[in-house]
Design a protein that fits this description.
- Chains A, B: One of its GO terms (biological process) is protein targeting to membrane.
- Chains A, B: It is found in: Cytoplasm; Nucleus.
- Chains A, B: This is Protein HRI1.
- Chains A, B: It comes from Torulaspora delbrueckii (Yeast).
- The structure is a homodimer.
- The first copy, chain A, is mainly beta and about 250 residues long.
- Chain A has 2 domains: about 150 residues, Protein HRI1, N-terminal domain (Lipocalin, Beta Barrel), CATH 2.40.128; about 90 residues, Lipocalin, CATH 2.40.128.310.
- In chain A, the strands form 2 sheets. Chain A has a 10-stranded antiparallel sheet. Chain A has a 7-stranded antiparallel sheet with strand order 15-14-13-12-11-17-16, with no helix packed on it.
- Chain A starts with a strand and ends with a strand.
- At the A-B interface, strand 1 and strand 10 of A face strand 1 and strand 10 of B.
Chain lengths: ~250, ~250
């Protein structure tokens, strides 16, 4: 079953807040992307690159361990990380160790530390709170025991750029919601990054673009019906392989 | 426009959590109730009274001040407070001063302090995070710019016990969601308290009981169509006056 999580709280230091509309998509097989656009960019730098952060990976990039009924650890070695791509100073490199605790309310609390000055120096602890959504719905509908049957019926499709294309990219479709990144190899500037968030609305499966960023954003796949594992789809000249498809 | 808020986070001390399924209903005219049932009561005491807290009041019991575009203060002198009703030791008495800040994400952060040992001693700061819901929906649907037209069309009805009935009670209906308290005067035990949470489902306006507590819970009004301001409705012998009705 794929999951779609909305972040409710981000906290580093004493004061919690949430300035972004963060959705994290996790496919049935564990491929993932977390897209973190600012709701209201505050300055020229945020206007030019209106994302707090984006990261993504396949299930080879994360190790998940169930520690107890309510607690899971996830250790991320992301395939794509916007901070790493841009080689931003004072940002974390390498594995990120996180702990996820299910609250009785249904939300999931994530804690961990990042090491922007390197592992040998003090880490910076963070807290994030996540709300599971019913990804089969075209609104933000909280996942509850009442709609879990609907939520568990969600489709899960993942597209990955093919070797030799000059790009790295992943699109994760969970239910009606798709998120993707596409980064140009050997670029390392904001001009090399592309992101998309789409939503299938209504019964006719019209794919609505909620967010699109980057000069190569027309190279994302945008049709998600009749997709089979192993298919190769082409979008404006770029080839994507379907590495997962549960319909 | 009435509002229905779901609490996402409750924090006293260093660690946030959420053990309750809290909804706060606020009518168009500002009458309110906050019902805070535990999701999983943990001991005999919590089984007997499975609520973290319940409080309610009319718009005479709260003073609201807009401090800036994103910040509002609310000073509560609750009409009903389950801790006060039970005369629980080490719980707050009197006015509670709170500050509400709209986050860019759409959630609302509430901060304040309570004084369980009295005003002359140190207060205990708390943090609560609230998610506005579209109360016209029969699921937990997040209120967003996309559905604000629907949310703003919600009906708002308030019932109040009549004088001389031997009970204090208030039922606040916001959209499809109703919450109420009914407390027996001069009782002061858990046997004197009654609470209800109902939800109108489907097009036929079937009122589904989500939560019911107390031996007099059959005295709550449970029909919310065709209600007019000034009506007096009777429920198993108890009379309720309609003090607000926007349909």
């Amino acid at each position: 079953m794929p999951t779609l999580l909305q972040r409710l709280v981000f906290q580093v230091g004493p004061v919690p807040n949430e300035r972004a509309f963060v959705l994290s998509s996790v496919s049935t097989d564990g491929h993932y992307i977390s897209l973190r656009p600012f709701v209201k960019p505050r300055n020229a730098s945020e206007e030019a690159f209106p994302f707090e952060w984006v990261f993504a990976g396949t299930n080879q990039n994360v190790v998940v361990n169930q520690k107890s009924e309510a607690i899971v650890t996830q250790d991320f070695n992301n395939w794509f990380d916007s901070n790493v791509y841009l080689n931003l100073p004072n940002t974390h490199r390498g594995e990120i160790n996180t702990t996820w605790e299910n609250w009785e309310s249904g939300c999931i609390a994530e804690t961990g530390s990042v090491f922007p000055a390197g592992r040998e120096l003090d880490g910076v602890p963070f807290f994030e709170l996540w709300q599971p959504l019913d990804s089969t719905r075209d609104e933000l509908v909280v996942s509850t025991p009442q709609n879990e049957k609907s939520a568990s019926s969600a489709k899960s499709i993942v597209f990955k750029t093919t070797e030799g294309s000059g790009f790295d990219g992943l699109v994760v479709v969970t239910g009606r919601w798709a998120q993707g990144f596409l980064s140009k190899q050997n670029d390392g500037t904001i001009n090399g990054m592309n992101f998309i968030r789409t939503l299938e609305t209504g019964n006719s499966n019209v794919v609505q673009t909620l967010l699109q960023y980057g000069r190569d954003a027309d190279k994302f796949p945008r049709k998600f019906d009749g997709i089979k594992l192993g298919d190769v789809v082409e979008a404006n000249g770029l080839k994507w392989e379907v590495i997962e498809s549960y319909l």
